[in-house]
Amino acid sequence: MRHLLSAEGLDAASATAVLDTSDALKQTLSGREVRKLPTLRGRTVVTMFYENSTRTRVSFEVAGKWMSADVINVSASASSVGKGESLRDTALTLSAAGADCVIVRHPASGAAHRLAGWLEEAGTQVVNAGDGMHEHPTQALLDAATLRERLGDLAGRRIGIVGDVLHSRVARSNVHLLRTLGAEVVLVAPPTLVPAGVREWGAQVRSELDPELPGLDAVMVLRVQAERMHGAFFPSAREYSIHYGLTEQRAAKLPDHAVVLHPGPMLRGMEIAPAVADAPNAVITEQVRNGVHVRMAVLYHLLAGEEIGA
Amino acid sequence: MSRVLVTGVRPYGEGDPVDLLVEDGVIARLGADLQVGSEDVDEVVAGRGAVALPGFVDLHTHLREPGREDAETVGTGSAAAALGGYTAVFAMANTDPVADNAVIVEHVRRRGAEIGLVDVHPVGAVTAGLQGQQLAELGAMARSSAAVRVFSDDGKCVDDPLVMRRALEYSTALGVVVAQHAEEPRLTVGAQAHEGPNAARLGLVGWPAPAEESIVARDCMLAEHTGGALHVCHVSTAGTAEVLRWWSSRSAAPGRVSAEVTPHHLLLTDELLDSYDPVYKVNPPLRTDDDVRALRSALAEGVVDCVATDHAPHAPQDKDTEFAAARPGMLGLQTALSVVQQTMVRSGLLDWRGVARVLSERPAEIAGLADQGRPIAEGEPANLALVDESASWTVRGAELASAASNSPYEGMELPGRVVATLLRGRITAGEGEVRA
Fold it and tell me: CA dihedral in degrees (A75, A80, A85, A87; nearest 10)?
């Protein structure tokens, strides 16, 4: 495979290779004053972000720069997108202008797959930085890197994902990758926020959070994406918070070794209590730190010739 | 007097080949070896054992004129229809401007007549501007020279129950049919694909089956209450077939309910969406194997009356996009017969007489066309489609007659080929070419 479009279909060996590279990069760079490797010198990486995003875009940009790639950021508002140019034409233009790799964030599910098809001939590689409600594979990889750091091998570990599974590309990517790495996944959400047919994903589905907490090795709290809430998914923010918010009382029910993750940005007081987000077992800033190394590893495997398998 | 001799065809695929002598658009003689010399007729069509069927009638075609002539025109759409074996098509009202007044429907009717490849019957909008709020001038369109007999807001549902009730009620005075695109809009906000495991996995907003089924059930009750004639467009779910089966068991009820299924809902499923290729985006969406099976059975049983193409040409810029941005719809006129043969005849669910029923006779009856869907017999109009059932062909969207090329069957090998089409005795298509 020449692209990273989804965590679905990413085999365990390839995922583990990326994670191992990420660990190695982290070790190599730790404590160094100049955090720059020459590996991707002369390669051009373009980020195309059709949705507002600070953390993911910056993370990819830093990752590219630390690998010495030339990184160019294109944002929807600043580009010809506003002039009504199609995604296809924008992609072909960037490819023709010399992009070796396009990193795309787009509100339409499947946008990265479409790009990969259009850019097949040009040989430009595509990394999916989040497509609609579909997938966000580098987020799943950075979550796995963080979990491995704290828990070791993920085989047999039980990971809870709590919240708006329906609209969450983070949840989809994590279910696929965590299952590939041998973990058990339990999704906890009100029935309105669970997609039809979710049982085919091989995850367990629960509507009550409290009984699950003592059996979890990690809990991943999803943002409740207010901007997507146009359709009466739950009665009120207060009721959601009462039933699914990770409060201090709930966090106390987790085993001592368990960790708390959040892909950000957080709504403190809604899906997660401030004290829980800042507690020692919360690895939220570690996730961000690992995000850079994981994305460096992805760029390395894609652009430096070491393939990520199908 | 014009005379055309059709040799060696098997009406309804039955019996030994016969000849048909067509005089002035009417089947004058029918029998084995009519002993008519080629010098005595204007033209001879060599049937070579083809199945003769009454010319097909499509209750659901988008010809895009006026407004989107880059995707299809009455001319290109008529050519596709003739090549597909059609002798009458109903052109949907969602053009730009909308066909919600006598001027537009008369224009479309006149363009169809000028081109002359197929009878083009404009469908009038049910509501002004397809806005679903105020009835369009149904009477003016029905009484215009276009003589509109089918009304539909297709593309949009007449979702307001009061407006739908009034449309059905009002239509009874005109003797016309209200064709409903059944889609409860509150249940399909942003919907992209059949709500189920595939859409969930692909992150596409789901289009739930009850959004169709609830409207069909409601409209059946409104048809009974008002005595109106309801036609259900593009039935796509097993549940809708169940609702219609329940309705057909109440034979004493006043009002009239008929239904169509598209070729693509008889063959394709949402598993094709894995590629995110919008050529597979259509409304209502491709559904599951279970739905496909249920729709085939419902069509065979007559619970669903007929096949209608929902032929929906789209320009490349409206399909060569990300999935969510693409327009829904797919070409259908030139592939309908082949898909019906593949799904219904090969499976043994329909014989060729059954194909005549679902592609010609029932749609003509539903729309009240007196000269279409008639028996192949002496004294009947010579509207005919000749089908080589042993042929097979590979679909290439770019080679189809439509201005657009968005065929979901691209590269697929399908059985059966229309070898000639006759409209009132005139050859409109033969050997894969249209005959203006």
Answer: -20
CA nearest A86 in B: which residue?
B321
Would the CB atoms of A197 and B200 count as touching at under 8 Å?
Answer: yes
One-letter amino acid at A224 equals: V
User: Which two tokens mark A199?
Assistant: 């049982």
In angstroms, what separates the C-alpha of B153 from chain A's closest C-alpha?
25
C-beta atoms surrounding A253 within 10 Å: 15
Residues facing residue A261 across a β-bridge: A220
Lowest mean pLDDT, pick from A23-37, B87-101, B259-273, B387-401: A23-37
Annotated catalytic sites of B, by residue? 310
List C-alpha distances in Å: B214 to A155, B128, B293. 46, 24, 21
Flag if B276 and A201 touch (Cβ within 8 Å): no
For residue B411, how many other CB atoms are within 10 A of its CB? 9
Pairing of strands A184-188, A204-206: parallel
Amino acid at B125: A
Give the ipTM of the model, two decimals please. 0.92
Place of tokens 């006779």: B361
Sign of torsion, CA B67 B71 B75 B78? negative
| Chain A interface mutation, best of B322, B323, B327, highest count of A Cβ atoms under 10 Å | B322
* Rounded average pLDDT over B214-222: 97
Burial level of B199, CB count in 10 A (0-12/13-18/19+)? Answer: buried
Fill in the amino acid letter for B21: L
The bridge status of strand B193-194 relative to strand B177-180 is: unpaired
Q: B-chain residues within 8 Å CB-CB of A8? A: 201
Residues in chain A: 310
Q: pTM value? A: 0.95
Residues of chain A with Cβ-Cβ distance to B201 below 8 Å are 8, 172, 197, 200-201
pLDDT band at A310 (very low <50, low <70, confident <90, very high): very low
Strand order in the sheet with A101-106: A70-75, A44-49, A101-106, A125-131
Contact A113 B320 (CB under 8 A): no
Q: How far is CA A141 from CA A137, A138, A277, B320, in A?
A: 6, 5, 21, 31
3-state secondary structure of A237: helix
Q: Furthest-apart CA pair in chain A: how many Å?
A: 55
Say yes or no for a CB contact (<8 Å) between B205 and A172.
no
